[in-house]
Amino acid sequence: MPYSFFDIVEKCDNYPYSDSTYYPSSELNDNIPFLLDNDIKVGLLLPSIINALKEYNSLKKPNPFIIEDKFVKFASHLNTFELRTEIVKQLLDTWREEKVFPALSGWRDELYPIYGDSKNPTGVAFVMERCATPLFGVLTFGVHLNGYIRTERGQLKMWIAKRAKTKPTWPGWLDNIVAGGIPYTLSVTESVIKEAMEEASLSIEIAEKAVPVGAISYFITTQKGLQPEIQYVYDLEMPPDVEPKPFDGEVECFYLWDMDELIKHIKTDEFKPNCALVIIDFLIRHSIINPDNEPDYLNILNRIHRRLDFPTKTI
After folding, report:
1. Per-residue confidence at 171, pLDDT binned at 50, 70, 90?
2. Cα(250)–Cα(178) distance, integer angstroms
3. What are the phi and psi torsion angles at 88 (to 5°)?
4. Of 43, 180, 242, 256, whose CA is between 20 and 30 Å from 31?
5. What residue ranges define each of the domains in the chain, with the CATH number in brackets?
6. What is the C-alpha separation between 152 and 134, in angstroms, rounded?
7. How far does Cα 169 stand from its chain's mean position?
8. What are phi and psi of 230, to 5 degrees?
9. What pLDDT band is residue 21 in, cutting at 50, 70 and 90?
10. DSSP labels, 264-275
């Protein structure tokens, strides 16, 4: 039996909404906030992470972290971007070398910004390795592109990528034509253009025509940890004679599907979870999913635009 759209949304946005919700034998019942020195929450820590932090902390003088029953924060002497970034790097290098957490086996050498420092004009408090972000439950940002065409009769068709089987995450699953995280050094639009060239062989001239159409937000829990995420969404109506081609080895092939075919693959749960949400958002914005044909219309809207109580980028 196929999944409903709401089922697919729930598989991605699966962190509990209420503090009163209890999950038997689950670490989710005992997470505590990771704070900056101004008491701004920048992450959430599970008990397994807290225990590893305590062990690491005990070996370092002065202690880099203040670890209490209700929170963890940087020690007061770690009060700059550079100092926080360096201690996080040392911590993660140690955990990676000692193989403390499986999540770190997917090391990418990509730095992600963690926001919340009002003293820094960019708001960035520190940066950390991408694969470590679920360990700290910090908010991460990505960008997804819907590449589509209109036929002569006005029918919508969307280009869909199949992830390479060699990908460290979600190998062989379906994906948006272009998607990726936003590194510390790039803007959102620069990330779109970069990923479009690298993943789909789209020229700069075509990629620059991508239009920002909003964002989705959700909070997913996996075996690797906690991951609140915001994905900036772009639409690109492509010329009918332009065909995306794999370039950097991350994509196996591309398909061009009409909306019925696209929906069929979503409801059989073949898409990487957050990519399915991006497409569901597209279907809503183009009135293919609407209040008259979808009983969970409002619930879906709420769940793909979840409020996340973490600092975000400031201009």
Report:
1. very high
2. 10
3. -65, -40
4. 180
5. 5-14+140-304 (3.90.79.10), 31-136 (3.30.750.160)
6. 45
7. 12
8. -120, 130
9. low
10. HHHHTT-B-HHH
